[in-house]
Amino acid sequence: MYEQKYATLNNGVKLPMLGLGTFKMESGKQTVEAVKFALQTGYRHIDTAMIYQNEESVGQGILESEIRREDVFITSKVWNDQQGYESTLKAFEESLKRLSTEYLDLYLIHWPQKISCETWKALEELYEKGKVRAIGVSNFKIKHLEQLIQSAKIVPMINQVEFHPQLVQEDLMDYCSKHKIQVEAWSPLMHGKVIELPISQKLSEKYHKSIAQIVLRWEIQMGVVTIPKSVNEARIKENFDIFQFKLSDDDMKKISDLNTGVRIGPDPDWMYMF
């Protein structure tokens, strides 16, 4: 069993640094088995969302793993057309039912929207009532965070954003660090394109690890929680085997220097409804 590492959120809740992402995992047996295998391998952090349409399968996989509910960190998200105070409260309850759980460990606003401040009030209420252990946002740039924080009672605990060697977003990282907002990475392996990055093969040979393991280890050492997605058991296991080696400062810098600001996914400004 590999030794998992944890991030401590600004409310004291501990979040496993490595989790299983489930974006584009279709509802059904494949997702159930992937979640089940990941948990049996040692993962304790599963990330899903209403829009992924696989919450029921994720919940079933958690149940079938026979890992205690309190030992699994479950994240879901409210989608854009469900935002708003009342509709968010309803969306949250629907996610709970699909996941077959009485509470969530983390609930996020999936993308910044015009009414995100109203949505955030609903998340604050859910948190204060103990229905969710931590609340946060996803895909928020600095300007979106500033707008939210102005009217918030609670500062977000997480900002889940696209993060990989070509998109480091240093200014956003610094802002989140200043406000004690933990950064979490989606698309940490650039949809598999990390194998095309220069120097990756050299580092793979140096550390006797796969390119994916090198990049995931870089992200963990950057202090970024990361959630690689895979339904392949060998790859799920491989992605988890990153806690028994460490990249040198020089090699960390080599990977960080690959930053070009190029996105794999949508720019949050494109998703913002003015």
UniProtKB/TrEMBL annotation:
Binding site for substrate: 110
Active site annotation, chain numbering: 52 (proton donor)
Keywords, comma-separated and alphabetical: NADP, Oxidoreductase
Any one Gene Ontology molecular-function term assigned to this protein's record: oxidoreductase activity, acting on the CH-OH group of donors, NAD or NADP as acceptor
Pfam families: Aldo_ket_red
UniProt-listed InterPro entries: AKR (IPR020471), Aldo/ket_reductase_CS (IPR018170), NAD(P)_OxRdtase_dom_sf (IPR036812), NADP_OxRdtase_dom (IPR023210)
Keyword Iron: no
Superkingdom per UniProt: Bacteria
Name of the molecule in the record: Aldo/keto reductase
Species name: Anaerosacchariphilus polymeriproducens
